[in-house]
Amino acid sequence: MTFEHIDPRLAKLKDDKDGARREYQSNLPKSHPGYEPSSPPLLRDWLELIVTFQLQAPWFSKDDLPFHVLDNPVHRDHVFGAPFMPASSWKGLLRWAARMRTGLLSHLEANNNTLTGWRDSAEVVHLFGNEREEAERFQRGALAFRPTWFVFDKVGFEVINPHDRTKKAGTKPILYEVVPPGATGTLNVLYAPTPGVTPATNRQKAVLLLLDSVESLITEYGFSAKRTSGWGVATITKATLRWRDGSRNGKLSDLRDEAKKLVGGAA
Predict the structure, then answer these.
(1) What value does the mean pLDDT take over residues 71-92?
(2) Cα–Cα 20 to 30 A to 262, which of 12, 37, 204, 256?
(3) pLDDT class for 39, splitting at 50, 70, 90?
(4) Inter-axis angle of helices 203-216 and 87-101, to 10 degrees?
C-alpha cells in the first residue's frame, strides 16, 4: 500500500515536507462537538464523580497512527477524528496521583528514584486494583472511567525548541498539534465496589483519596504529555457527586463531607 492510499498529503510529504504540513494546518475542521454520555443507574454504595474543567495550558497526547503528515499529531478518535483522552490514560495518571499523595515522592527520593520496595496502600489497591504483574491475590479496582472528548473550536499548534547546553541556542524546533487552552472537558469516574464483597480497606478513606487525587492531578500536576513544561493543567469549573437517590454540585472540597456520609467506613 502506498502513502497516497492512506492520505494524499503524505505523497506530497516526500517532495515538500514543510508545504504538506502547512496545508494540513490550514485545512483543519473548525469545530469539535462535545460528547455527553448518559449516566448509568447506580447501585447501593456506588458513586459517580463528574468533573468539568477548562484547560489553562495546551493538552497533548501523541496519536498512534503509523503514518501522519505531522511528527507529533494529537491523539484522535479513529471514528470521528476528534481529540480525546482515553479512559486508560485517566486511570494510569490518577493511580500515579494517588501514589504521590500516599508517599511515592518520599520513596523515590530515598531509593535512588526507583520503585524498588514500593507497595501500594490498601486504598490505592481498592480503587485501582493490583498491577498486572501481580500473580497471586489479583484484585480488580473499584473504579471505572470514561474517555474525555474536548470541546473547542480548532486545534492549536505549539513549538518546543530544545537548546544545546554548550551553545545555548536552539537546535531543531519540534511542532506539536495540541488541544488549545480554553477548551473544556469532563472527567467521569464511577466508584463501583463489587456488591456483596467486603473490601479489606476503609472505603471512606479510599473515596476521599480519590477526590484529592482528582483535584491535584487536574489543577496541579496536569494530565497531558509534557507535564514538566506545564501542559495539561486546568481549572475545575463544576463538580457533581451522584449516588443512587440523589446528587450534589459544588467544589471537590465541598463534596468530601457528602462522600464521607454516603460511603462510611469499612463495610
Answers:
(1) 87
(2) 37
(3) confident
(4) 110
**Per-residue confidence (pLDDT) for residue 79, from 0 to 100:** 80
Predicted TM-score (pTM) of the model is: 0.81
DSSP H helical ranges for 1-119: 3-6, 8-13, 17-26, 87-101, 104-110
Q: Give alpha helix (H) positions in 134-242.
A: 203-216
H or E segment and range at residue 240:
strand 234-243
User: What are the C-alpha distances in Å from 263 to residues 187, 197, 258, 267?
Assistant: 21, 14, 9, 9
Q: What are phi and psi of 243, to 5 degrees?
A: -135, -175
Cell numbers 479513529 correspond to: 78
Distance CA 266, CA 253 (A): 22
Q: Grid coordinates standing for 226?
A: 509534557
Any bridge partners for residue 176, and if so which? 158
> For 164-201, b where at least 16 C-beta lie within 10 A, e where not — what string?
eeeeeeeeeeeebbbbbbebbbbbbbbbbbeeeeebeb
pLDDT digits (tens, 9 = 90+) for 88-129: 999 999 999 999 999 988 888 888 888 888 888 999 999 998
- Pairwise CA distance, residues 3 & 190, whole Å: 42
Rounded Cα distance between 124 and 76, Å, is 30
Distance in angstroms (rounded) separating the CA atoms of residues 218 and 55: 9
Pure H helices in 62-135: 87-101, 104-110, 122-128
